[in-house]
């Protein structure tokens, strides 16, 4: 089944979908409301469950060229910086899960995807904000804010947590403030004490924690610094923070953290909002993927990986000649919803693990980390194509 596909959103999920579907012979157009491509979001990580799928699309070499192989995972005490848990990644991780764990600058990842899409003749149409969707049994019509239109057999909403396409599919939903905001930024590695030795690094405190890892082949250190804060409620990746605010919010943390937060030149800040899993991802000719389908708190580090998994399953079913569009979208949703829901709900629980009071609770948490590789194996070892083969009729 070859279709004319319109993708709304030129982020990681949207571009990966465009590449996969074009490779499968579909005619693909991509639209995004942004007028330019930027570096919003700073760092992003791809675990083996995402990297393996990128490899199948032929993108692995380009990603390894711009990324950082996260060679170890470390957990540090917040005040002293003392290392209390460490486990190798690097070759150990690749041997166990079949692909590396990469830290990437979001702009680098997006450029790799753009280059691949354009190399196949694709074009991203910028400045196109979707404002209306008209779906009939035969096709989908999309209207943009500038008055232009697009027509498709299949419409994919990859337009993020504030998805317009999701409104068409599932109606309005309610975002619930999680009581937490986070600062994010990039710092040159030579301005972070011990930065050249960092892999995937956590600093865990009672009401705040940081996730830190290198990107751009180790040239930069990416941080995301989470703190409980009832006042900051701006859910925007483009909202600006201030280094002095970040330093003040993490008063009492060790010198490495404070030096890193103080050295950043451009700090973003956004509030975390949670949403319940959707009951429905698709209509007859419209579906969702990535954050538009299953927005999740970032505490499992799986947002981008789950979008890539979505793409693999969606491309599989849209490529089945015996399925109608509606049947293909229904099958995609059936396969993907249970895993996405599990990770959505699990991400909520991780915040409680990362931020616990000093004393017995923290000690118990630290002891549980000894089992970390086995606890997360179900996430990183997941093989979309193996599941599809197992589910296929004999």
TrEMBL record:
Residues 4-343 form the FAD-binding domain. InterPro entries: FAD-bd, FAD-dep_Monooxygenase_BioMet, FAD/NAD-bd_sf. GO terms for molecular function: FAD binding; monooxygenase activity. Its cofactor is FAD. Pfam families: FAD_binding_3. Keywords: FAD, Flavoprotein, Monooxygenase, Oxidoreductase. SUPFAM superfamilies: FAD-linked reductases, C-terminal domain, FAD/NAD(P)-binding domain. The keyword Secreted does not apply. Signal peptide: none annotated. This is FAD-dependent monooxygenase.
